[in-house]
Structures are given as C-alpha cells and as structure tokens.
Design a protein that fits this description.
Largest sheet: 7 strands, mixed
Keywords: DNA-binding, Transcription, Transcription regulation
Radius of gyration: 23 Å
Structural class: alpha/beta
Family: Belongs to the LysR transcriptional regulatory family.
Pfam families: HTH_1, LysR_substrate
Order of helices and strands: HHHEEHEHHEHEEHEHEHEHEEH
GO molecular function: DNA-binding transcription factor activity; transcription cis-regulatory region binding
Protein name: LysR family transcriptional regulator
Strand content: 15-25%
Shape: elongated
C-alpha cells in the first residue's frame, strides 16, 4: 500500500469520479484505475461501485476513507516535523469573494511576496455557496468569505469578524448627510448591486419581499471595485460591505447613507475542511488575516 494510492482514493471519493481525479492529480485515467485495483486487491474489498458514469463508495470504502485520511494527515505531520525550520515553500490555494480580494488580500499577499517568495499563491473568487462546494471537494486549501455565520461539523473555523453592510452614494448625492432616511425613499434611485441570491444582496431582497417590494437594479455585477467606480462618477446608490468602501469614504468620494429602517451586518469567516492537513502556509495566511493588515 502506497501513500499515492491513498491520495488517489481520497480524491476519487471527494470528486465521485475517476476521470476528474485523474485530471486533478495529473495521471492518466488508466493509471488511476490501476492504483485503485491494486489497492482493492491488497485490501480484498471493493472500495467503489461503478455504475456507468456514477462512482460511489461502498460501505467498506466509506470505512476505509476515515483511515486513509488519518494516514495522509500523519504522513504530512511527519514531513512537517522534519522541515519545520525551513522556509515556506508549498503552494497555497485560497477561495474568496471579489470584495475581500480587493479590500483585504493585497496586504496579505504583499507580506507573502516579501517574506515567502517561493510560495505560489492561487486565488479563486466565487460565491460563498460555490466556495464551500470547492472546499468540500478539496479543490481549495481554505476559504475566506463574507456571509451570515456558517457552521459545519466538517469544517474548522479560524476567523469570524462582524462587518457592517452600508448604503453608499457619491458624496454630492442629495441623500448624503440626510439623517433617518427610510429605505422606501431611495428605492427609485438607480442601484448598482452585486448579483442576486448571495449574502448581503440576498438579505436586502428578502427584506423588500417581506414588504411586497422589489428592487430592480440598474446594473448587477460581481466586481465591487467596478460598482464603486460607477457610483463615484454617476448618480446612483449601492449596498456594500463597509470595508469595501472605506478608502473611498476617507477620500471624501463616497458617503454612507443613514438608512435607519434596514441595517444588517455580515461576518468575515475563514474555514478549511477537517480532513485537510493544515500546512504552515495556511497557518501564516490565517495569522495575517486575523491581524487585518488593510
């Protein structure tokens, strides 16, 4: 039994696909099939049921998965003990939101570049739902997103920080500086919003729906930096995390609108899967995120 066979077995179990596992591992599909056949022969059990394109763990396969994950973690632990004093070298794949990518990651990535130049960092941006799905399939080392507090027995949570979500407009907007606004007063203005059905946008839509109202935005886009540029230069309103607009507020380009009847907060959170070996590169990223260098 080889560690590479165990890693292949775990990836197939996560992806529920021999072909997808081969693609992720850089093997041919026939090589993956041979590894699993040899493993099954050694264990004298069938690990997967393969019916057409569907691949699922057998009962023995599910039981063996627990041990395979433990063995891989112990091997990683042993490697870590040997190289603990060496420089950081392993690649790091982080999943995050566009708003966090622009607002919170540059100082962290800058620190890595200055202090650990050999660490290859890959950033993937997606919605919280998509990031969680990728983490569950071991496609990301850790995820860093903004949402209502999330929990699962399968995850380790490393960070949870409250972040207000605010209505913002250009500093010369007629609503800037006006106290005690009602949401109803600004609904007819052109809105530039992030996409529907995700985190804080979802909360806004649900609130309006409960009052038999609907907000049809002028523009929907995932890129918060583009939204900020648009409302800075045009008459319009957006609804964004305070940290995303903080710099524009300091420069006097934008103003927070005092909408008194709808105020919520979301939480910056960092997770990684409990079956994931926590590398020193992950530990350093988490440490820096907690310091909030932005």
């Amino acid at each position: 039994m080889e560690v590479r066979q165990l890693k292949t077995f775990v990836i197939i179990a996560q992806e529920e696909s021999f072909s997808r596992a081969a693609e992720l591992l850089g093997y041919s599909q026939s090589a993956v099939t041979v590894q699993i056949r040899l493993l099954e022969e050694e264990l004298q059990v069938r690990l997967f049921d393969r019916m057409g394109k569907k691949t699922a763990l057998t009962g023995q396969g599910r039981q063996f998965l627990e041990y395979a994950n433990r063995i891989i973690q112990e091997v990683n632990r042993a490697k870590e003990a040997v190289v603990r004093e060496s420089e950081l070298l392993e690649p790091l794949h982080v999943g995050t939101l566009e708003s966090l990518c622009f607002s919170k990651l540059p100082p962290v990535l800058g620190y890595f570049r200055r202090n650990y130049p050999k660490v290859a960092i890959k950033i993937t941006t997606a919605s919280p739902k998509e990031l969680i799905a990728m983490m569950e399939k071991n496609q990301l080392d850790l995820i860093y997103f903004l949402d209502r507090p999330r929990y699962s027995n399968n995850w380790n949570k490393e960070l949870e920080v409250r972040e207000p979500i605010v209505f913002v407009a250009s500093s010369d907007s007629p609503f800037a500086g006006k106290r005690g606004l009602k949401l109803e007063e600004i609904l007819e203005e052109p809105f530039f919003l992030t996409e529907k059905n995700e985190n804080y946008r979802r909360e806004l839509d649900q609130y309006l729906e409960s009052r038999n109202r609907e907000l049809v935005p002028f523009l929907e886009i995932t890129n918060t930096e583009f939204i900020i540029q648009m409302i800075r230069k045009n008459r319009g309103i957006s609804y964004l995390p305070y940290f995303a607009v903080h710099e524009s507020l300091k420069r006097g380009e934008l103003a927070v609108l005092d909408v008194a009847d709808f105020r919520i907060a979301m939480y910056r959170q960092i997770f990684y899967h409990k079956n994931k070996w926590r590398t020193r590169e992950m530990e350093e990223f988490i440490r820096l995120a907690k310091l909030d260098l932005s």
